[in-house]
Write a structure and sequence with these properties.
Layout: H1 10-19, H2 24-37, E1 43-46, H3 48-56, E2 68-72, H4 99-106, E3 111-116, E4 128-129, E5 133-134, H5 150-157, E6 163-168, H6 174-180, E7 183-186, E8 206-211, H7 214-224, E9 254-257, H8 270-285, E10 288-289, H9 300-309, H10 311-315, H11 328-340, H12 343-366, E11 369-373, H13 393-398, H14 401-420, H15 424-435, H16 447-452, E12 456-464, E13 467-474, H17 480-493, H18 501-507
Parallel strand pairs: 2-3, 2-6, 9-10, 9-11
Antiparallel strand pairs: 1-3, 4-5, 6-8, 7-8, 7-12, 11-13, 12-13
Helix pairs in contact: 2-3, 5-6, 7-17, 8-17, 9-11, 11-14
């Protein structure tokens, strides 16, 4: 058995299988052992028997033949838990495998090891739930991995598996990629099927992977992208994503550098590091910097409220009795949405969406790409449930049982008031955002590409205070290949660690 799991990218692991340097069984055993001994809490479930059986029968001629993977626990794998990362559905078992993981497993040839932790229903960009506890960042224990694909980011950067699935409905691939030093690609909306349950709302979710290299993500596109009749938004797959890496002529492409967008405030050191990484990328590619103004509405509050309201349909008759089983923020958010979400807020959200569409279209008339930060700062505390400072609105609302009762009473009163004064809800939402803007900071840099549907990638861009930060690059619709090439040039010439330094150090043989 290998001493540690493979610490390079997934493509090189396939090469090691084909050359006989490594075997799928050996690798599966190493991953299982590493997960069982890890203190990262990156996996919520593992299935050693299934994994070893798949490894023994692995076809290494397939694109990812024999590679152990983690599957985000918001994805479905038949026979595995289907909890939504929530105590409410802790006993639910998936009766089918989602189309994206099915293609990865069957067409790609991967070996599924288990489920990686996620935030509850994907509703928060953090790494803590009541069901699974706290997931830690391998760069520094006690720091967040972000979310909602935080467990996948922790598992890949933490050396447990070389690749893991993710999903991005508001930044949930890019945010953890930025925090854990990985490459995170959110493709054009529809690039990868969301079937068989391709819900229209929220109309922002894109499937993908947490990857150590650009070629891993490109090869994943080769395997998984393409039309699915059960997902009407799915796009044809032109293929050859990996083979075509490096084929785009980037010289002379126009790029705008906006360290922060949508009113998000960056923490100290982030802008300096981002500009250095952007300058390096521009020098390497020969792109031309163009002055760019991008005025965006802050979409996070109304968008999040509309999505939280859809949870009530999933809860069905379990609501409101299941409140005590939910993460406080999800429970209070659902109450808030139930009390305040109405046609007026929906109308405002749609007007903001159209305004955002127009702003992004104008921007991409001026430039080919936009460079901004992935996250406002490096990873914050792992057990935090928001990136906001303490004593904010939600902290007060959840601080004590009596306060929670009072909050629910206030929300019940608001439901009555909203019937007579329907525009009051949006005014209250705007007031909350104005008073505590940090409540919607996480995701503020990433969400626009989910709303607009354009491709965006987070590229590891160095360190701030010893922790990774990401350079996010946005491109117009259907120009995913160009983002792969930009990231590929940066990876080839500048590079980034494939795993967190502590993982590499632990794997080095001892010297005497």
């Amino acid at each position: 058995m290998a001493d540690t799991p493979w610490l390079d990218d997934a493509c090189s692991l396939v090469e090691a299988f084909r050359s006989g340097e490594r075997s799928p069984v050996e690798e599966a055993e190493a991953s299982i052992a590493a997960i069982e001994s890890s203190d990262l809490n990156a996996f919520s479930f593992i299935d050693p028997e299934r994994a070893l059986d798949a490894a023994r029968n692995a076809d290494v001629s397939k694109p990812f033949g024999g590679v152990p993977i983690g599957v985000k626990e918001l994805d479905q794998v038949e026979g595995w838990p289907d909890t939504g990362a929530s105590l409410v559905f802790k006993d639910r078992i998936a009766d089918h495998t989602g189309e994206a993981p099915r293609r990865f497993i069957e067409d790609g040839g991967v070996v599924p090891i288990g489920l990686t932790t996620a935030s509850e229903f994907g509703g928060l960009n953090v790494s803590v739930t009541r069901l699974n506890g706290v997931t830690h960042n391998p760069w520094q224990h006690g720091r967040t991995c972000g979310g909602s694909s935080g467990g996948s980011g922790s598992a890949v950067a933490g050396g447990l598996v070389s690749i893991a699935t993710g999903g991005d409905g508001g930044g949930s691939i890019r945010i953890p990629a930025g925090y854990t030093g990985l490459f995170g690609m959110k493709g054009t909306y529809g690039r990868i099927s969301r079937g068989p349950d391709a819900f229209f709302r929220p109309g922002t979710v894109v499937c993908g992977v947490m990857a150590r290299s650009v070629r891993d993500a490109a090869r994943h596109y080769d395997v998984v992208a393409g039309v699915d009749p059960r997902d009407p938004a799915s796009l044809p797959n032109p293929g050859n994503w990996e083979a075509n890496l490096g084929s785009v002529d980037l010289k002379g492409k126009r790029v705008g550098i906006l360290p922060a967008i949508a009113g998000v405030r960056l923490e100290d050191g982030v802008e300096t590091q981002l500009r250095q990484a952007a300058d390096d990328l521009i020098t390497l590619t020969g792109m031309e910097v163009v002055d760019l103004s991008l005025e965006l509405p802050n979409l996070a509050a109304q968008w999040a409220m509309g999505n939280l309201s859809t949870l009530l349909a999933e809860f069905g008759s379990l609501w409101p009795k299941c409140q005590s089983q939910l993460t406080d923020e999800v429970a209070l958010g659902a109450i808030l949405a139930q009390s305040m979400y109405n046609l007026n807020i929906a109308a405002v959200a749609e007007a903001q969406r159209i305004e955002a569409y127009a702003a992004m279209a104008r921007a991409f008339d001026t430039v080919d790409y936009i460079i901004t930060s992935t996250n406002p700062g490096p990873a914050f505390a792992a057990d935090a449930t928001t990136s906001a400072p303490t004593d904010n609105f939600l902290d007060v609302a959840k601080s004590h049982p009596a306060t929670r009762v009072a909050f629910r009473g206030l929300m019940a009163s608001l439901r009555t008031v909203n019937g007579a004064f329907p525009k009051m809800s949006n005014a209250l939402v705007e007031a909350v955002v104005d008073k505590v803007p940090d409540l919607v900071t996480m995701g503020g840099l990433t969400i626009i590409s989910n709303i607009y549907g354009n491709p965006a990638a987070s590229i590891p861009a160095g360190l701030v205070n010893g922790l990774p930060v990401g350079m996010q690059v946005l491109a117009p619709h259907h120009r995913d290949a160009e983002l792969f090439d930009l990231a590929w040039v940066y990876e080839r010439e500048i590079g980034w660690p494939k795993v967190a330094p502590a993982v590499s150090a632990a794997a080095e043989p001892a010297t005497v």
